[in-house]
Prior knowledge:
CATH class of the largest domain: Alpha Beta
Helix content: 25-40%
CATH architecture of the largest domain: 2-Layer Sandwich
Number of domains: 3
Largest sheet: 5 strands, antiparallel
Strand order of the largest sheet: 6-7-14-10-11
Oligomer: single chain
Low-confidence stretches: none
Structural class: alpha+beta
Bound molecules: uridine-diphosphate-2(N-acetylglucosaminyl) butyric acid
Radius of gyration: 21 Å
Shape: globular
Amino acid sequence: MLVEKNVALQPYNSFHIVARAQALVRVTDEADVRSVLADPLWGRQPKFVLGGGSNIVLTGDVEPLVLKMEIDGMRVVGEDARYIRVEAGAGVPWHDFVCWTLAQGLPGLENMALIPGTVGAAPVQNIGAYGVELQDRFWELDAIDLQSGEVFTLNAAQCAFGYRDSVFKHAGGPGRMGLKDRAAILRVRFALPKDWKPVLGYADLERKMAEHGCTAPTAQQLFDWVCAVRRAKLPDPAVIGNAGSFFKNPTVSPEQCADIIAREPKLVHYKLDNGQFKLAAGWLIDACGWKGKSMGQAGVYEKQALVLVNRGPGVNGEGATGGEVMTLAKAIQTSVYERFGILLEPEPVVV
Length: 351
Ligand code: EPU
């Protein structure tokens, strides 16, 4: 087991925030985790599980031992009458996995093309885009208990998926199971439907269909369109540091929605199956005039107000700090709250 000391984390977080890990272990299989747990010094230390670093804001150096998940491998593991089942290691980049499934002739993940991060991080926040969420294609996952070293399997219900949420985002407490910092995801298995049908209905995709005069796109076409739409309005984290959408889209009651529309007729809102309304956080932030604004080296992306970006490297060559990103996030929360009475909830994990 190699414990690397004082490791720069800037290459390992998509915001490109400068921070260091006091100690870091690269995990390429579960034996690596067991070696850490058996170690007299590191075994009992707090641990921090790092995937692709695409949904975190580092506000300082990371003191817990960082377990950087680098478990590889993609394979078909079985099938039944309705599904082909595939598995990927936690360290596989999510987009590579989507590409691999399509290359195998297995559609189902195309709407989630180009989402940054790793396969192992995908269930943590139940990633989703263009009408498909991870939980719609999820079968089960293997995780390792960071105290006992025991490997266990969780199905979708046990993962307690919600909108950008799962059991892995919460610490346990009375009446609530939580696995935050208590388990690391090793492998994830998906059930891809044999009777695949395109998931359409999003305005951006409907526009692409009209442009191409196409009514029944293939999975490859959908994949290409999703990639084109994302590239047009979301910053590529390889070029501009960011963590995707910074806030969740809030849900409000029909009364609250009607009340806001009475004051703000242009409010972008969608009715949910349960009768509640989802509001576009990007629109709320945009309406408060934040698009393109900056505080220090942290900024609001010009083409999508829901995305906060690192405007660095600045004079010190280091770009935004996690503190600057959080100061900007708090200022945005305050102005959206003052105008609309809605408290936006950040999506990334603040470390
Ligand atoms: N809008 C504005 N101004 C803005 C941004 C958005 O007016 O600056 C309006 C748009 O005109 C549109 C609406 O807000 O009417 C919704 O915008 P968009 O379609 O871009 O989607 P979103 O709600 O902002 C969500 C996800 C994205 C996902 C897209 C597509 C969340 C928090 N975000 O964004 O996910 O790619 O839908 O499905 O749910 C992520 O989670 O990191 C992420 C990028």
